[in-house]
TrEMBL record:
This is D-xylose reductase. It comes from Neolentinus lepideus HHB14362 ss-1. Residues 20-298 form the NADP-dependent oxidoreductase domain. Gene3D superfamilies: NADP-dependent oxidoreductase domain. The active site is at Y53 (proton donor).
Amino acid sequence: MALVSPTITLHPSGAQLPQIGFGTWKHTGAKATEAVYNALKVGYRLIDCATDYANEEACGLGLKKAIDEGVVSRSDVWVVSKLWNTFHHKEHVREAVLKSLRDWGVEYFDLYYIHFPISLAYVSPKERYPPGWFFDAKGTQVIQDPVPLRETWCALEELVDEGLIKHLGISNMASVIITDLLSYARIKPEVLQVEIHPYNVQPKLVHFARTNLLAVTAYSSFGPLGFRELNMTKALDAQPLFTHPMIMDIAGEHHWHLHRMLVSATPAQVILKWAVQRGLAIIPKGDVISQMEENLRVGLGVGGTEAGSQEGGFLLSDAEMERISSLNVGLRFNDPSDDFGCYIFC
Ligand code: NAD
């Protein structure tokens, strides 16, 4: 019963970005391999990864298994990675991309992001890989080594020219730096990936991106949940979205037919549907096949399909969309100023 995600048209390429992709942060080792393989079997056609996730080899093995078994061909899948902060100097960009490609076992990335507009001191992969947030000898301070974003961008453009990257993206960037980047980019970024969930709705940034023809991918759609896995105090203190009375109420109001059976929408589906109906791409991380299916089914009713099914999922009303958006308190869980002293959002 393969599910097919709706797509978003990218500008200027016209490429079709799967609107619902699969997130891999915190999946490691054999679990990452299995998760990627299962996600592809379920029907995901975009795998969101990054150097920093320390799982590119493992994810690549999952892709290889799916290709070897005829589940997908390489050209069916968007393989996505991100440049880590220690590789922003032009001479390190190529090194980082080539290493990630080797680890994945692929010849090109479909989409490659700059992970953060933060440049840290270079760490050789021989010394430590992935280097993470590299602290000084005392372990108290991140070592910044500012590089003009233009230098990093131009180095990435060269890799697009060589066919090693198909599309470029930017992540965790705010409007001022994007405006600057767009003023000189020979190859425009096509996707902006940022933290968006009902506690951090980011309406102005989404409007800005639309105005500048950038598709937006929302990460950490379930708000605190993904950060609870790290025992982050801010996330542990926040009201979980799945048990938020408003989200539960809205879920309880939606029933739809799935394989001729009447089912209820789940809180997870309500949260993801809210993002998808805003026109955002999403990349939820599912741990088990049932979650992967539940999340990908959110595409039904907004352009996604399920083999053998004529039934179209559920849709949120305008009033429900507004109610969910009213949870916005600008609560950001992934802010490098909290733990690393790197200020990018203020
Ligand atoms: P998420 O919001 O996708 O939540 C993941 C958690 O939700 C997991 O604990 C999982 O078990 C649970 N879950 C998933 N589906 C569920 C369902 N249907 N029912 C119940 N529980 C469910 O968290 P995330 O991993 O933080 O974000 C998703 C992806 O976004 C990451 O894997 C990564 O690819 C990307 N990301 C990017 C950045 C960036 O800086 N660009 C930062 C964070 C995450």
